[in-house]
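PROTOCOL LOG
Step 1. Enter all chains and additional molecules of the complex.
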Amino acid sequence: MSPMTRREFVQGAALAPLALQSLSLEGKAPPTDRFDIVVAGAGHNSLITAAYLAKAGYRCLVLEGRPRIGGCVKTAETTLRGFKHDTCSSAHNSIFDNPLMRDDELKLGDYGLEYIYPDPVIHRPFPDGSYITQWRDLDRTVAEFAKFSKKDAAAYRRMMADYENIAPVFDAVTFAPIGFGKSLNDRLAEHPKGKFWQRRLAMSAWDIIRDTFEDDHCRAFMLASPWSNQPAQFPMTGRTAYGPFQQQLHSRPLPKGGSGELTQSLARFIQAHDGVILTNKSVQRLIVENGKCVGVECEDGSAYRAEKAVLSTIHVKDLVNMAPRELWGDDFLDGVNTWQADYQAFETDYAMTEPPKYPVQGGTLSSVHTELMSTPERALRFAYDYAINAVDVDEPPLHVICCSIADPSRAPAGMHTVKVLGYQPYDLKEGPQHWDVIKDRVSDANLKYLRQFAPNLTDDKILARIVHSPLDIERQNPMNWHGSIHAGSTGPAQSGAMRPMPGWAQYRMPVPGLYQTGATTYPGGSVTGAPGRNAAVVMLKDFGTSIEEVLRKKA
Ligand SMILES: Cc1cc2nc3c(=O)[nH]c(=O)nc-3n(C[C@H](O)[C@H](O)[C@H](O)COP(=O)(O)OP(=O)(O)OC[C@H]3O[C@@H](n4cnc5c(N)ncnc54)[C@H](O)[C@@H]3O)c2cc1C
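Step 2. Run joint prediction.
Step 3. Record the structure below.
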């Protein structure tokens, strides 16, 4: 079957309604039901906030606009029956620094959550046939660098030690709301290596990597994550030069059964604590009485009142249209008007009969995560392509994810799910709608490039595919504004105390009674759960208790 015929066959078969996830969340909250908290949107962050509030004894109603909960932490059979694809995120490493997971605060294992820790962590093959594999074992990874340069191997080990030394400081500020506890600057001022880190954080990632490593393979390895939010040559991106060390510590953990198992376990937790979750409930309007937000109204005309507060995870671009403009204030509206998108993803999901097999010494290697970044120059060109809205399929940087290697439950016996994630701008010269015309060609070009590294992926191994352009990614979830992976740029103008807007970084919104969490809030996107837990810290304080007190309570 030719690729095109195969694709057409797939689209007919693939899009039948599928009931992968076990929870039945459809239903009506009886009109007489009373809720303390109404939550608009069911991404992992808002579910985390709701879970802590439910544990505190507040009755929560969660309203999700889509047919299924989870937002960008969702798994679905989008190609063929039995192939469970993560529709967005797969790697959950960042959430492992969150006290939610680190201290097992909600015991989500009791609600079905189980993680797998892939080893190797990441494989990075290069066009000349060489490769660097990151293994969970540090010595083994260092040996991979030593194939290219003894100096670079020593640098990798040194940077790992530097990272381990400072990680508790980064974690303390990431997993606390702004203004709760010491700021990063205050913490660095007290730290023995604080001055070293002040300089590193202000530098560009590229400056650090170029000056620390001498070999271009090692430099390309260190730069291989364009998805780390900001172009590597921009000032104040220095922390992303240390990105590989977080996953050296934690691997890139995968929930067993699919990324969506995280949000499903949170939903089970909320329901077990007297909460209600309704799907197909797109919130369209905030109900404001006497200047206070007291509930929400949905597209279908239903309305739900909250006795204590409304919590939103609606994108700020949409949220401001849901209440009279004057309630937000000029500063907040200016923050929304000037909000910028971040890197945009281009995704193809495949149902395959084999995983990618990358040639290595003595045979082939199949790794859950593989990243293709040919050279440092290619990494640096990335920002330019975005700036001029150019679709660039020349040596496209790709992230290839095959979860079924480590988790066979994701596909029928012997089969595999493969995600090929590329990065292309949403705004095209012809306008974003042009993506509907060109997306199949871009997907074909990505596959052609991938085959240079995994020649086993011939047409006969491909059972089905589904392509998501940056425009489709926005269509899937309004939080992916303009195809943004993290809801919006995490450049300095939208970071720290300026996320979402200067003056509004503490999850309390200008309309009293309304709180906001999710990727538009501090510290931003990715599966960190930080906005979710931090919002719970603020809300519980406002309600006269604390997260510590709630966690001390018996289940
Ligand atoms: C293709 C892709 C791949 C990614 N891969 C990774 C990865 O591997 N690792 C990683 O850490 N991060 C990854 N990310 C980023 C990460 O998935 C997101 O930043 C994160 O999941 C955002 O979570 P959230 O809870 O803030 O919001 P979301 O998950 O976006 O949830 C928001 C929810 O609110 C709902 N909603 C919005 N508006 C309304 C409304 N008006 N009414 C009712 N409901 C509404 C949405 O439908 C959605 O369910 C990826 C993102 C993308 C797009």
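Step 4. Note key features.
The radius of gyration is 23 Å.
Confidence is low (pLDDT under 50) at residues 1-27.
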